Every structure is written in structure tokens, then in C-alpha cells.
From TrEMBL:
Upper lineage: Bacteria, Bacillati, Bacillota, Bacilli, Bacillales
NCBIfam families: FlgEFG_subfam (TIGR03506)
Annotated protein name in UniProt: Flagellar hook-basal body protein
Keyword Nuclease: no
InterPro entries in alphabetical order: Flag_bb_rod_N, Flagellar_basal_body_rod_CS, Flagellar_FlgE/F/G, Flg_bb/hook_C_dom, FlgE/F/G-like, LlgE_F_G-like_D1
Provenance organism: Oceanobacillus kapialis
Domain Flagellar hook protein FlgE/F/G-like D1: 116-174
PANTHER family: FLAGELLAR BASAL-BODY ROD PROTEIN FLGG, FLAGELLAR PROTEIN
Keywords for the protein's UniProt record, in alphabetical order: Bacterial flagellum, Cell projection, Cilium, Flagellum
Family affiliation: Belongs to the flagella basal body rod proteins family.
Subcellular localization(s) per the UniProt record: Bacterial flagellum basal body
């Protein structure tokens, strides 16, 4: 009985975390470059159930041999193994603002690979983003809306000295002071990237390999890849599963109550 109690409770916790991920996706459905989180559920380690018994051999000493008959496997619960971002390309929205840039995937050498803009956070560390909603700060540097420097190929902030600049499809920022190559980074395992908030990712990324192709669209933004209708449907399914586990948990609780109050009193 106690095993079923904890199994139902683990199902409720797993569905609650799934609801949190789906709610966050829906809240960011209009955030440029946002990548939807996908949760994966995994069962607790399986236990092999066996029937323990014995067989008496008709000898002078009545020898008793232990026998184990396999019954099957039993899972003891479920949990959310991970919430990995889905790096599927989002739709483009034209803004005609020169500081807006959309990174469009072409051919990638790895199925799980992804391309990202390189930026510098407030601690001076390199982070990555798909949100190309950039602007120019008071010193003429290209920055994100949170004030993080957008980096070039050499890992330095890009000085545009105003709004009068253009960006070619191959990621070259052309300004009056010179040209800079956008710091486009590539990761072969996008599922390993961790979200840090403000549209930033942290993880292993490096130079774009020779087999990868892409283009940068100035005056466009990449939309979030969240499917709001699908997310709402999944939220309803998750909520129903939560309620089902809740009813099972309540039934076990009532059974335990009877075991304590009624069976104990009769004894």
C-alpha cells in the first residue's frame, strides 16, 4: 500500500513540474528567439519481482530446495528527467528596425546542433542567445535590450557609432569605422545548453564548422517557437493526469485511515 502511495505522489510532482514548464512557455510565446522547454518523464529504476518458494524432495531427510519464479518488473514512480530547450527555427517577423537581426538556420552538420549570437553578460562571461532584438547604447556599442554587449568574431564588443550601419546575410556588420563579423557560435548538442534567464544560454559552443550554413536577416526578428494551442492542450492533459494521481492518493489515504482506526480497534 505504501508503495502505491509514493507512486501516486511522484506522479503528481512530475505533472506539477510539467505544468510549470508549459506555463513558462506560454508566458514567453511573444518573446523573440525564445526556445520552448520540453520535459521528458522517466520511470524510477525497475525492480524485478520474484516469487519465493520451495520444493520438498522425497528423500530420507526431506530435502527442501528454494525456488524463485520470476513474476516481472515493477516501476516505483516517475520523475521529470530534464527540461531541454527545443531549438527548432521560429518564424520571422519583419520590423524594419536596423538593430533587429534574425539568425536563420541553413544546413547544420549535426541534427541536434544550433547556431547562436555571442554576447557578454554583466560579469564579462560569454553567453549565447537567439534573441536578435538588439539596440545601440549611449557609447555606440551594439547591445541586447538588457545591456549585454553583442560580440564579434574576435570576442570584442561591436562599435557601430550610431544606427547608421548595415548587416549582410553572412553576418558582416558594415559601419563607417569598419566592418565586423558577428560572433556566430555553433553547438553540436543544443540539448546541453542551459537557460540562464533574459534569453541567455550557457554551454559548450565554438566556431561555426565548415559544413554549416546560415544567413542573418537585418530588420527581422525570430519569433518564439512556442505553439500556444499545443501547449494549452498539453496543460489540460497534464492537469487531468495530476487529478487522477490525486484521486489515487486520496484512496490510499482513506485505506490507511481505515487500517489505523477500524482494523486496529477490532484487534
Amino acid at each position: 500500500m505504501l508503495r502505491g502511495f509514493y507512486t501516486a505522489a511522484s506522479g503528481m510532482i512530475a505533472q506539477q513540474r510539467t505544468q510549470e514548464a508549459l506555463s513558462n512557455n506560454i508566458a514567453n510565446a511573444n518573446t523573440p528567439g525564445y526556445k520552448a522547454d520540453q520535459t521528458s518523464l522517466k520511470a524510477f529504476p525497475e525492480m524485478l519481482m520474484q516469487q519465493m518458494g520451495g520444493k520438498t524432495i522425497p528423500t530420507s531427510n526431506s530435502l527442501n530446495l528454494p525456488i524463485q519464479n520470476p513474476i516481472g518488473s515493477l516501476n516505483t514512480g516517475v520523475y521529470v528527467q530534464e527540461a531541454a530547450p527545443n531549438f527548432m527555427q521560429g518564424d520571422l517577423r519583419e520590423t524594419s528596425i536596423p538593430t533587429d537581426m534574425a539568425l536563420v538556420n541553413g544546413t547544420l552538420p549535426d541534427e541536434a546542433g544550433a547556431l547562436l549570437f555571442s554576447v557578454q553578460n554583466e560579469e564579462g562571461d560569454v553567453r549565447y542567445t537567439r534573441n536578435g532584438n538588439f539596440t545601440v547604447d549611449g557609447q555606440g556599442y551594439l547591445v541586447t535590450n538588457q545591456g549585454y554587449y553583442v560580440l564579434d568574431e574576435a570576442g570584442n564588443p561591436i562599435q557601430t557609432d550610431g544606427m547608421e550601419f548595415s548587416v549582410s546575410e553572412d553576418g558582416i556588420v558594415q559601419t563607417n569605422a569598419g566592418n565586423y563579423g558577428l560572433g556566430i557560435a555553433y553547438t553540436a548538442d543544443a540539448n546541453g545548453m542551459e537557460k540562464e534567464g533574459n534569453g541567455l544560454f550557457n554551454g559548450e559552443a565554438g566556431a561555426v564548422p565548415a559544413g554549416a550554413t546560415y544567413n542573418v536577416q537585418q530588420g527581422f526578428l525570430e519569433r518564439s517557437n512556442v505553439d500556444s494551442l499545443q501547449s494549452m492542450t498539453r496543460m489540460m492533459e497534464s492537469y487531468r493526469l495530476f487529478e487522477t494521481n490525486q484521486r489515487v492518493l486520496k484512496a490510499y489515504d482513506e485505506s490507511l485511515g481505515k487500517a489505523v482506526s477500524e482494523i486496529g480497534r477490532l484487534a
